[in-house]
Amino acid sequence: MGVGHLLLFDIDGTLLLRAAEAHKHALYEALAKVHHVGPDRIGEVPTAGRTDLEIARHLLLDAGVPPDRIDAHLDDVRDAACEAYARLCPPDLSDTVAPGMPELLAELRDRGDVGLALVTGNLEPIARLKLSRAGLGEFFPPGQGGFGSDDEDRTQLPAVARERAVDGNLAAFPRDRTIVIGDTPLDVLCARADGVHCIAITTGPHGADELAGADAVVGDARGVADALRQLGV
């Protein structure tokens, strides 16, 4: 990439707010299609910050599906969820964009010394379509980022994104110049697991006290910009 810093943005609760309803239904539809687990057998599990396949696994375990069957059909669930979301995704998600985020992303992109990519628990086709329908797809080039389709364990995703955003010597992008930006304790955890920086934003379901492990905790896009300056970006 040859840039000064790599910024890894989460999607739900960070770039977009209240844009997950069709996504949830697509995952439920996939579980019904692949495992014949209907809504009456689907319980409630925490979803914020988790990967799609981790959420699916917990829902299926709660419904009594054996772990070996879950493992054998993870790819089928992934494909079915992406197919369903392509049908269910609203044509326009622009009203879900977090205030100030388009301006912040444009400002960062236009600098030329910052790389923008995603680290999200969304399966990549879902993430790309969701951002495209929200009008933010142009900021995140293909071939970059880490997604729930890359690894079920979110803590592995920053490293995946750094490997894809190679530095000038074709090594993984350096940890000390990588920053995760997200809204959940699991965003903070995945950043710490890879030894990279983290800015947490309180636009999602978690308050500042729950995000205290980040380098900075902010309330909006302008706060992100201020925190980036404090981190030397």
UniProtKB/TrEMBL annotation:
PROSITE patterns: COF_1 (PS01228). It comes from the Bacteria. Gene3D superfamilies: HAD superfamily/HAD-like (3.40.50.1000), Putative phosphatase, domain 2 (1.10.150.240). InterPro entries: HAD-like_hydrolase_sf, HAD-like_sf, HAD_sf, PGP-like_dom2. PANTHER family: PHOSPHOGLYCOLATE PHOSPHATASE. This is Haloacid dehalogenase-like hydrolase.
